[in-house]
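Page header: ASSEMBLY MODEL / two components / 637 residues total.
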Amino acid sequence: MMYLRTQDISVRHKNSAPLSFPDLNIKAGDEVLLLGPSGSGKTTLLSVLAGFLKPADGKVFIQEKDFFLLSPAKRDHMRGRDFGFVFQTLHLLPSLTLDQNIKLAGDMADVKVEENRLKELLMTLGLSDKAHRKPDALSQGEQQRAAIARAVYLKPKIIMADEPTSALDDINADAVIKLLKDQAKATGAALLIATHDSRIKTSFSKIINLDSQKKDVA
Amino acid sequence: MNALTLAIASIRARPLYAALCTTAVAAGIALLCAAFLFSQSISTGFQRNAENIDMVAGAKGSPLQLILSSVYHADIPAGNITMNDYENLLRMPQIRKAIPVAMGDSYNGYRMIGSTADYLKIYEAEFADGEIFDAPFEAVAGAQTGLKTGQDIVVSHGFSANSEDVHDTEPYEITGVLKRTGTVLDNLIVTNLENVQQLHGHHHHDDKHEEEEHHHDDEHVHEDAHEDTDEADLERQLTSVLIKVRSPVDLMNLPRRINDSSNIMAAVPSYEIARFTKSLGVGKQLAIVLGAGFVILSTLMLWATLASGLALRRYDLAVLRVLGARPGRLAATVIAEAVIISGVGAVAGAILGHLIAYSAVISFENLNRFIVPESLLLPSTMDIGFILLGVLAGLFAALVPSVTAARTNISTLLAKGRV
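Prediction written out in full:
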């Protein structure tokens, strides 16, 4: 059974032509690369998959259930519990410490997590001694790892990453992709990375090129 | 982590704004609280001290001055009446009790009251130590005078604490000290009527001039005037008579009858005080308007603070949505922030209000005689109302910002990221 499946999605932005997207079929353990230049609609597609943006046409199925037929509250809860997000700009809350930022994922999704999960994650990501620091006191790499830790804290079914490497150099970019893959494997999650960064396409089995598949826009 | 901890984190991220808003809420609530407490304590003070005094009779003049001087000891008496007037009052059937009062002297600013043992009963006084005056030049001291049984005191003329116009006669001996009553009695010294009458009979031709004389710090002016005075008559003078009537109905007609039929005046404390406090009400209204203005201002400040905080935190809120928080939860963090700020401000304001009212009462010498200042430091039921008012202001301030927070639009924010 596919975990996430889309069908003829198209989104209509104000004052512009509708944007159509290729169908996605993602099952547990898949590693999918969504490749396309900026403006090709990667973030728009992620917004639809996350349940924030209702497509003008087409459907999103999560475990074969129509995602947009769920109540907003159920959709919010499912997103919090089963989806993990990593963004280019990391979106750590500056007023909270690193461990509070990670725990936030459980609190906002109303999911109880055993204490060990946090310790284990911090250890794997080499953040144990930084747990009580505010994001401002962390290096770029540490913030990156903290953001990933927050995304995988609840052992999500799918990890969606939006441009996770575009601000990084080659070595760090590779490290982040490896980390995402490792974490996805460790939790049995599917991984969906949206990027325009061609450096990383080689390491993926499934690549969807948004630009080439985009239907003609008049 | 819930709305509360997120709210606290948000406050700690911008402590200065929070402090400013808290201060503004506190200022408004403090003003309101102080105004209400102050006026309430004045009216209960007025009421409690006149509880057993239905009517006061004295020399014709200002009824308010008669009440303020004879009942509250917050003014100087305007003149005297004679013992004959007093005896006439005693013959009226409507009057259950008439207690004569003569005054004009003081010790360290504590008024010496010449009266009878009944005077102590007005205030339901009990002895902490010693017993009632019996022989001439014995006196009983109120609880707050600091006097002790057995102490000898030399009274001076007039009511001022630093008077140098000392009577060169016999000193009074304190035979007893009263327990605290929370009334004017606590700051009085009470002796036999005759003692005061005698002292003044020897020294003065007319108590009407006593204050004027008192202000002449030079030689004893009254020594000269003394000669053309009928001493015997002066010794039979009173300052006022405190009256208890048989039935409340008598209060309707009796004062007018006395005013019309004799050369003395009768005044009813409750009437006069009601009129007096009405004129004080202007000050109270001013404080209320000011306080309400502050509360409104603080609401707007808090609103602006919350709104600008949201602008700064919109990415944070978007992250919370991404992590699964429902819109209501985002609204709740904003509301919690507002309630914390306004709640702390309101509690601080209520405490401050008590302190302001307290210091206002102790700084007016005439007020702290008939109001128990310490009672203003105790929590009152009004405080709950003021704290609720402050919190309500906070909730109002959070109204629009919380809706804004709930509507956090994520899809556009995610694309832009933090700048």
